[in-house]
Amino acid sequence: MVRGRLQTAVLGTIATAIVCGCHSKNSDGYPTWATQPRGYFPKEVSSNAFDAYALAAEQAEISGAAYLDRVSFFPGQRHQVTETIQESVSKIISAAKKPFEFRFVAHKPFEPIKYQRGWRLIGRSLLWTVQDACIAADFDKAISAAVVGTRFGFDLTGGGATDASLGLAIADDMRKAIAPYMAKLSPVQLDRLAKGIKQALDNKPPITNAVKNEQENVLQAIQFLQDSLRDGTLRTVKRQMGPDVSEAIQYLEPLADNPKKRIPYFESLAKAADIEFAQVQQNCDLPVSGRPKPITKYDAPWKKLAKHVFGAARPLVEINDATVARTRLLILYAQINRLGIRNKAFPTNLDGFTKAMTIDPYSGSPFLYHADQAEFSLYSVGKNGRDDGGDTDSTYTEPDLRLECPAQ
Fold this sequence. Notes:
The protein is mainly α. The chain has helices at residues 2-20, 49-63, 75-84, 86-95, 116-135, 139-156, 161-178, 187-202, 207-231, 234-241, 246-252, 259-284, 303-310, 313-343, 355-358; strands at 368-371, 376-379. A hairpin with a 4-residue loop joins β1 and β2.
């Protein structure tokens, strides 16, 4: 029944896109798909935490310039980075207490995305703080940094796909760093961790925001391709995208002087993007097990371009599924452990917990939970939608998805 309603809704969106179109006509035969994005300039004094986040990123990119492109760090370098961008991190810590609204600005392909390198470096510094504090058994400090880092990461999911991916990665890092130490936390610390992470999750923007913003990026990409065709710069695009699109670019080049083929080419590409995003938006409101398989088939001259132009939204939603599932598991683990210490026995079921926190995004039903007085098991069914008895791999992902910590 859900599948039928979804397909009806998507087909209605397709019909609307075909009838209404999504661009304005130009006299030169090159429709306008997107206008030049207007930038946003953060304010020093603002009630929106985003402004402080943006200014902190700019500051980190200047003070930590020598480290922005590094992917691995020696202990001494980690210390240097932390000291160098300490002021930026302090801004994030203070701002994380304020309301947050992401000021998204669409971008063209291959343009550097503002703030991302600074945010990534700040995220690493917060991660190292959690890791070092856990090793030193300073769990109060570790919890404070993990909660701030999780809030910071989740706030970033209000941007486009790359912003959201970075934010989810930061939140994942915070959880992975503190989860293995759960059994060493006191009841007070467990309660503080659970409440802090729950508040961060409650404040997380819906992933539909990122999907919507990414659709604006797609229109910029279509405009960019069309402009490149008109201006004779497709060879540069081909080099930047790689050999996978060579055939598609070769097909596109002769269309510069053929509006009868050129205009339908870009119209069909844009309509396919509309259909794809309509499907993804519908999926965001459904558990993984209730999502229909994609109905869009890219049997068109531009099919090789599809993954470059509008292929980021669906994987983003999948990453979000796993992050949300494990964040809920972290909150529940902390609460269950706290009750186990206090009552000398673990709860027999999940009935006493907030219902929203017990729902598995993969099944739409409560997480699987088994307990006796001495131990408990809590996990998600994962991508395959089946209960495999909690069996998982070295990444805690398949077949069942679990929190990244040793079994109880």
